[in-house]
Amino acid sequence: MPATAAAAYRDNVSTMSQDVARYSRQMLLPDIGNDGQRRLLNSTAMVLGCGALGCVVADMLARAGVGHLVIVDRDFIELSNLQRQVLFDENDVADAIPKAEAAKRRIAQVNSGVQVTAIVDDINHTNIERFATGADVFVDGLDNIETRYLANDLAVKSGRPYVYGAAVGTTGMAFTVLPHTSGHAPWETTDAGSLATPCFRCLFEEAPPPGSSATCETVGVIAPAVGVIANFLVAETLKILTGNFERVSRTLLNLDVWANEILQLKVNNAYEDGNCPCCKQRKFEYLDGIAGSSAAALCGRNAVQLRHRQQADGVDLDALAVRLRKHSLVTVNEFMLRTQLSENDKQYEITLFRDGRAIIKGTEEPGIARSVYAKYVGA
Ligand SMILES: [Zn+2]
């Protein structure tokens, strides 16, 4: 026990400095320093999805000392994930651990000072606000565009930043949303004036038709494409959490690590020039469950029906069949496409109709059906 108040103070300082010593290299950056590190330690980041992007994001945010991570993911780890999902190993595959839980266990070994809340669930409009309680920022690790619209709705409605990112094949995209609020958000009251950006829906107003987008399961993905984008998201998140809003990227990043192309698209006019349903009209259609899809178990049939609330006509079943044939037998006619897939030793049958409606056979769990749909059909 320290004999004097001065000794107690010295002990206290020495303990504190040991606690933050692990962050010393990033604290040398003038934009971070003691104050920035303190902010990180007191922050909560929500990582939406813990696949390839989410793994890198959660790992790096934990190493940087973000005090609380909320990691939400509905999937279990498969052997084919290990090529790019850096928080997982062969033991996790053998033990069939859910991704969110495995991430929590791994992060406890990386930085035991970080609190991790692991949520094994399907993110949808009925639960996202509850999961996001206390989060200062939403970071994208998602595998489908519908949930991105949902995250964007919540970000804009609640005035919290959303760091969007996606990677497939050899390409990736990223954009940081600092929502327009009523002018009270810290990024709207900087010395440089308001730094609010367009939102995700300002850039991509409507979701592409079902089956029209490439997915990692159908066209593949290489880890460096994911890693570059994921680390970009981490840098953006660190800027936000340390209050360096003037450093936040103001362009839509688009890159191809195989073709050696990097584009930074200027998109700031998208807010002023557009009439965004979300951030201009403040209609939160995805959060309110008006847009997007609904899932309903088909009782007694071991199947789930996914139906888009807004009719999507003329889904290109033939183009999707070409991609899916790399995996499995596909039958397609003028009305529908049908294919059988196996995942985690389970068999699923997808039947997709031209209006985007799908029946996923092999499960009665809407979350699993959404997962299979997101992986093989895509937005
Ligand atoms: Zn918008």
State the fourth-level CATH superfamily of the largest domain.
Answer: NAD(P)-binding Rossmann-like Domain
Order of helices and strands: HHHEHEHHEHEHEEHHHEEHEEHEEEEH
Tally of alpha and pi helices: 14
SS class: alpha/beta
Main β sheet profile: 8 strands, mixed
Unreliable runs: none
Helix percentage: 25-40%
CATH structural architecture of the largest domain: 3-Layer(aba) Sandwich
What is the count of distinct domains? 2
Percent strand: 15-25%
Name of the CATH first level of the largest domain:
Alpha Beta
Q: Could you tell me which ligands this complex binds, including any ions or cofactors?
A: zinc ion
Number of strands: 14
End-to-end gap: 62 Å
